[in-house]
Each structure stands twice: as structure tokens, then as C-alpha cells.
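Researcher: I've been going back and forth with a colleague about how 3-carboxyethylcatechol 2,3-dioxygenase might be arranged in three dimensions. Neither of us has a model we trust, so I'd like an independent prediction. The organism is Rhodococcus pyridinivorans SB3094, in case that matters for your notes. Sequence below.
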Amino acid sequence: MAKLVLGVGASHSTLMNTHWEETTHKAEAERFRAALGAARDRIAAARPDVVVLLGSNHFRGFWLDLIPPFTLGVGECIASGESGTPKGPQNVDVDLARHLADEVVEGGRFDLAFSARLQIDHGQSHAIQYLLAGLDVPIVPLVVNVFAPPLPTFGRCEGLALALRDAIASYPGDTRVAVIASGGLSHRLPWPDWRDPHGEDEDFMVQAWLDGRENWSDYDVRRRQIIRAAEAAISPEFDDRILDLFAVGKAGELAGYTSAAIEAEAGNGAQELRTWLMMAAMMDYIPAERLAYESVPEWLTGMGVVVLDPAAAPAAH
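Model: Here is an independent structure prediction for 3-carboxyethylcatechol 2,3-dioxygenase. You can compare it with whatever you and your colleague have in mind.
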């Protein structure tokens, strides 16, 4: 049967690519980038045959005309390439992806959407760029809706993760599988609740999310201006508390959080912690090693990297 060999959680920010030179917290930025490199080396050492890639949607591949809570890529996968991230077709392990879909859906575990022609954005491709560079390993991408409420609960995310874990275990052969969660930690994007926008900028954003499927680049200049004008809202205290839970094997406590509680404590961008919870659940909540945590206001985000390594986990787990 297939084997889960490593889990990684890592924050992302396209501002790393587009505004690196303008970053004044350069030491923090360098330490975070170095941690991504260290995580990439850990992935390489684990020798995965495939990576299950858990990430969010930033209105590049999914729009308000149709946003499932969870979508598994089971065929072609195209990266949108915004802000210097990888662009174009990505290598997908179609056999494993379709096995997961069959086991989870037809096995009665979870009603999961799928796409045979999935478009991803930096919610996945940032991880491909920094964590899989040069590794030539296929992915199985899963997109989690974290920005267009109503959002799947943290508990439902955990349930899907456990179903995926079991489906991986039932895959024939000796395939080695790594899991990457991309997103988080605390940050607040200047994005409205699409159901209740206030003001010209928020009206513009919602209109872009409705009409941008065929021409998202037409909206992108102003979108970036709105994001660049936002003030950072990072909570190192929250981030430390979450990272401490991962360190002691208690990341499952995230399943008890509500969307409202996450937003109040850590901003709407912290809703991406759903992917971290899912990764940890798939790895049976073994204790994590923190490779970095840096607060980088210029990127609006608390930037963290953790690794969950079964080979290094205490025997009790």
C-alpha cells in the first residue's frame, strides 16, 4: 500500500516575487526563504513519488459563478502564473488522483467535487515554485474554498483529510506520498464578504470575482493596487499558539475553531489554516518541527514553515 512519508505546512505570498527588493524586514524575509529551501531539502530526502498539494483559491480558477468547498484535480492542471509564480501545465499523478476520488466519493466517505481540467493559482503554485523546485515529482492538487463564504467548517476539512489518508493507504503498490499545505498564517486581505460589500473598492472586488473567469487580467492592476495599499494585520501571538499546537501533536484542536473565531483573532487570510489542519490530520497529528516563523508586514502575513516527519516522530505516535 502507499505510504505517507512527509507533511509540510508553509505560508505563501506573491509579494515575495513582486516586491522582494522593497521588503524592509529583509532579515526576516531571508530566514523565511531559507526555511522554504530547508523544507524543500526535507521533501527531496523523503523521496516522494507524488505530492498531495492542499491549497486555496484566490479567484483565478474558481469564481463566484461556481465555487465548491473542495475540488480535487484528476486530470489536466494549469497554473495561472500570476505574480511570477509557475505558469502552464503541471504534472499530475492522474492514477492516484482518480483513486482518491473513487475511494472518497464512491466509498461513501465524502461528497467531493473533481476537475479534469483544473486551474490553480499561487495557492498551490507558490509551493510548487519554492518547495518542489527541481524535484520533478507529480502532484495531486486539492483546492479548498477559504475566501468565498459560506466556508467548509474546520471539522469537515478534518473529515475529508482522514478520508484521503485512508484512501492513500488503500492505493496498491509502494508509492511514497508527501503532503504539502500552502497558506496562512495570520493575515488580513482587503477582500470583502462577497455577500455584503461596502464601498467602491469592495464592489469592484466582488464584480471581478463574478466576471473575471475569461478576463481576470483586466481586473488585476487595480486588484494589486488594493492589496498593496492594505495595512498589515499580523498576530504573532495567535501564530505562535497555533505553531505550538503543531509542535506537540495537538493540531487537531484547530477542528474546533469557527470561521468567525479565526477571522476575529487572525484575519480572513488565516482561513487558509484549513489546509494545515488537513495536512496534519493526514499525517495522524504527529508532532511538527518548526523551521521558521517570521512576521513580515510588507507581505501582510505571518510566514511560517513546519515539517511533519514520521521517521522523526516519537514512538507514541
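Researcher: What would you highlight for our discussion?
Model: I'd start with this: The longest strand covers residues 70-80. After that, consider the following. The CA atoms of residues 96 and 171 lie 7 Å apart.
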